[in-house]
Amino acid sequence: MREGEIWWVEAGYTDRNRRKARPVVVVKVLERDAFYYLPLTSQKINSLKEGEILLTHEDMESGTIKTSKVLVFKGCICNRKYLLKKIGKLKRASFDKVVRELIFYHTKNYVKIFHTSSPFTPGKTRINYAGRVYNEKEIQNLVDSALDFWLTAGRFDREFCAKFSQYLNVKHVLTCNSGSSANLLAVSALTSHKLREFKLNPGDEIITVAAGFPTTVAPIIQNNLVPVFVDIELGTYNINTDLLEGAISPRNKAIFLAHTLGIPFNLDRVLEIAEKYNLWVIEDNCDALGAEYTLKREYKLINGKVVSGRRFTGTFGHIGTSSFYPAHHITMGEGGAVYTDDTRLYRILLSFRDWGRDCWCEPGKDNTCGKRFSQKLGDLPEGYDHKYIYSHLGYNLKITDMQAAVGVAQLEKLAGFVETRRRNWQKLYEGLKELEEFFILPRYPENAHPSPFGFVLTIRDGAPFTRKEIVSYLEEKGIQTRMIFAGNITRQPAMVDGGYEYRVVGELKNTNKVMMDTFWVGVYPGLTDVMVDYMIEQIICFCQKF
Question: What CATH number was assigned to the domain covering residues 151-356+397-408?
Answer without folding.
Answer: 3.40.640.10
